[in-house]
Amino acid sequence: MHWTSWQEFLTMRGYGLYVWGSFGACAAGMILEPLLLNQRWRSLQSRLPHEKDDV
Amino acid sequence: MMKPRHKRLVLIVAAVAVLGVAVMLVLNAFRSNLVFFYTPTQIVKGEAPKDHAFRIGGLVKAGSLRRKDIVAHFIVTDTVNETAVSYTGILPDLFKEGRGVVAEGKLENGQFTATEVLAKHDENYMPPEAKAAVDQAQRAAKTLQR
Amino acid sequence: MSNSVINWFKYASPSSFYPLAGRLIPYFSLAAVLLMALGLWLGLFVAPTDAQQSEGYRIIFVHVPASWMSMFIYCVMAFWSALGLAFNTRLSGMMTAALAPTGALFAFLSLWTGALWGKPMWGAWWVWDARLTSQLILFFLYLGFIALQSAIDDPRRADRAGALLALVGVVNVPIIYFSVQWWNTLHQGASVSLTKAPSMAHIMLLGMLIMALGFWAYTIAMALKRVRCIILERELTSEWIKRNALD
Fold first, then answer.
1. Inter-chain Cβ pairs, chain B and chain C, closer than 8 A
2. What is the signed CA dihedral for C143, C146, C152, C156, rounded to 10 degrees?
3. Is residue C138 part of a domain?
4. Measured CA distances, B74 to A14, B40, B45, B86, C135 (Å)
5. Which chain A positions have a beta carbon within 8 Å of C102's beta carbon?
């Protein structure tokens, strides 16, 4: 591992804003999408004609 | 709440607007921006616009960078022809002699006055040690040629 | 008809694809999480610094996979669209619609991370060069596709209209890919291509490829999950759902 301190890792030697801005946006998008999909899925389940037996 | 028909209308208008913007961007790109920059050779041949601003691209000639206060003078070369460039302002991080550069501005009497300087980097990614080894190998190859 | 043809068409019907997709989702989700964790670890902790761009180059580990996926997903959408127009299968329209939002997300992330990379390295968030402009058009094509589909109530007609847009728009993908060769662009050429050895240190390349595989698995998981939603929404009244309810 080539980082000498957490400080250096977090600031990315001056590129922290750009690097974390990129990784952060990707993380946000790729966490939000499955959450929204799950919500859509659950709301669909509640609209289905329920037959309790095989859930 | 909007009626479904109104909602549909809004969506169709939005779709048309989005596609319109896309087509406009394409046309705009094809009109002037497909040639993002001109090389010094194209300038010598007279292919670059003479009456309005354009971009020049090439390598910053090694040893050509001089700074007077905040004015930077350097030479852009495509290894065949050269153009002298002056620029007032802060140069980007990757601006270095021997590296790629794209500058926007106007050409007057062979002197290019830039209003914006962008660094153009290459597609090579390697750690500093590897870079040093490559540079050394290239220098060795050059000395052998002489 | 031979047996294999029947089996192939079996999964082209939404009612039999629905449970298959449900079984596959956990595997692709797990693969996505593991591959991305490995890719992030390689990209952020193992890969060395870059000689030219210092630590700023690490954006490559999300920028390139997102850009690749945004182009690839559009090609897959065009493939399903062609299939749908040719054979009039219901599933292909559903698959096309299921892929579009994820493709739009990746196209946006490609532009966003590119802007954050361009500012410190080139000196500009955005330039109108051929590569960046054609990628922006790809993003608008995704938005246009989604808007067009949601504007038409009848699903079959929405599918056909979307398929046409996907097929027309796919010409933009090779334009994006070759833009850096065809025109003078500020964007550099490809570091990884089929025609030459990659111009990247091995560990950097490995981290990037593993991230790309992770994005791939993520896309498949999302598309399968969304296609299940679409199947339910469209066939809420159809017989087989009433029979089987949920699984």
1. 132
2. 140
3. yes
4. 27, 13, 21, 6, 33
5. 33
Q: Distance between CA A50 and CA A45 in Å, rounded?
A: 8
By C-alpha distance, the chain C residue nearest B4 is C153
Chain C contact for A18, CB < 8 A?
Answer: yes
Same domain? For B45 and B115 the reply is yes
Global ipTM: 0.87
Provide the chain C residues 113-142 that lie in CB contact (below 8 A) with chain B. 120-124, 127-130, 133-134, 136-137, 140-141
Residue A53 lies in a domain: no
- Smallest Cα distance from C223 to chain A, Å: 10
Q: C30 to each of B76, C24, C102, how far by Cα in Å? A: 51, 10, 18
Tell me if B10 is assigned to some domain: yes
Condensed to tens digits (0 to 9), the pLDDT of residues C117-162 reads 998 888 889 988 888 989 999 999 999 999 999 888 888 889 989 9
Count how many residues are written for chain B: 146
Q: How far apart are CA C203 and CA B39, in angstroms?
A: 35
